Amino acid sequence: MKIDLLTTLREKNPIAFNISNFVTVQDVANGINALGASPIMSEEKNEAEAMVQMADSVTINLGAFTEQQLTQIETVMTFANQYHKPIVVDPVAVGAVHYRLERCNELLDQKKVAVIRGNAGEIAALAGVDWQSKGIDAGEGTGDLVETAKKLANQYHCTVVESGKTDIITNGDAVIRVFNESDLFKLHVGSGDMLSSTIGCFVGVEDDYFEAAQTAVVVFDVAGEVVAKSMSQPLAGSFGPRLIDELHLIDPKTVEKYANFE
Ligand SMILES: Nc1ncnc2c1ncn2[C@@H]1O[C@H](COP(=O)(O)OP(=O)(O)OP(=O)(O)O)[C@@H](O)[C@H]1O
Ligand SMILES: Cc1ncsc1CCO
Ligand SMILES: [Mg+2]
């Protein structure tokens, strides 16, 4: 895990192009802006090429897309591949909604992506492994999480980040587990979306996407854990804004002190 990437990110202030969902777009924009990136969102196909050319990375969140937005997403991903800009995909609820799974499979079959970040239910669905997802949540299953994540990474030759109490990061061969956590993440809708877009920021400044994903996960998880530990009452409503504050404040020393991974 390259802790220096946090400093690099802040020096470079990468432009992080995000196709977000209407539920969590504000938290995502403020979260990664506070961290040190420069977010830009767009839903317009006609400006797709300009957006991609300008951006250092592209994060595609499939949280609430319409048919028209899907056309824009395909266009953006095509340009991103053409201009060699790394793509992070967040396959929201593909384990619960078959339509989403089909569309996401098509995108992944046709375009090259750097990182897929999802919860256990989403990663299992994409890997074709049995699991009971529940809406946007991970749901229940008995499969081996590490093997499932590796299978998906090998399927698409990309890095996979499978989030949960322990986060699993794999390139299909090597595996890193991040143990930093807080129950409050689950009480804040969009924690996962923020994590995916944080990964988007780091792949914008580091060509080794496996390394970039590790740093992103550790920084994000430590930030949440530090916030949770500092709250006298662990309340869902205050966690979101405090997490954004901590993404602003967090420094390499804090990350080094609390990081818990192997
Ligand atoms: N059971 C848990 N206990 C502690 N932390 C968790 C737990 N599950 C997830 N997290 C943390 O929450 C963050 C988001 O991961 P999660 O798996 O909840 O994403 P998600 O399901 O896509 O969330 P959302 O749909 O709300 O965006 C990660 O940083 C992860 O470490
Ligand atoms: C609640 C919700 N519904 C669609 S997207 C989203 C935010 C979590 O991804
Ligand atoms: Mg999610």
Structure characterization notes:
By secondary structure, the chain is α/β, with parallel strands linked by helices. The protein has a single domain, classed as Ribokinase (UDP-N-acetylmuramoyl-L-alanine:D-glutamate ligase), CATH 3.40.1190.20. Helices cover 52% and strands 16% of the residues. Strands 2-1-3-4-5-8-9-10 form an 8-stranded mixed beta sheet, sandwiched between helices. Strands 6-7 form a two-stranded antiparallel sheet. A hairpin with a 3-residue loop joins strand 8 and strand 9. Helix 2 packs across helix 9, helix 2 runs parallel beside helix 11 and helix 9 crosses helix 10. It starts with a helix and ends with a helix. 2-(4-methyl-thiazol-5-yl)-ethanol (TZE) binds next to loops. One of its GO terms (molecular function) is hydroxyethylthiazole kinase activity. Its cofactor is Mg(2+).
Jot down its keywords.
262 residues; binds 2-(4-methyl-thiazol-5-yl)-ethanol; two-stranded antiparallel ribbon; binds magnesium ion; single chain
* Structural domain count: 1
CATH architecture title: 3-Layer(aba) Sandwich
Percentage of residues in helical conformation: 40-55%
How far from one another are the termini? 10 Å
Give the CATH H-level superfamily: Ribokinase
Largest sheet: 8 strands, mixed
- Kindly report the CATH topology: UDP-N-acetylmuramoyl-L-alanine:D-glutamate ligase
Average pLDDT: 98
Strand ordering within the main sheet: 2-1-3-4-5-8-9-10
Number of helices: 12
Strand content: 15-25%
**Element-by-element helix/strand order:** HEHEHEHEHEHEEHEEEHHHHH
Low-pLDDT segments, ≥5 res = none
Give the number of DSSP strands.
Answer: 10
Structural class comes to alpha/beta
Rg calc:
17 Å
Query: What CATH first level would be assigned?
Result: Alpha Beta
Q: Ions, cofactors, ligands: which are bound? A: adenosine-5'-triphosphate, 2-(4-methyl-thiazol-5-yl)-ethanol, magnesium ion
The general outline is globular
Cofactor: Mg(2+)
Binding site for ATP: 117, 163
Keywords: ATP-binding, Kinase, Magnesium, Metal-binding, Nucleotide-binding, Thiamine biosynthesis, Transferase
Family: Belongs to the Thz kinase family.
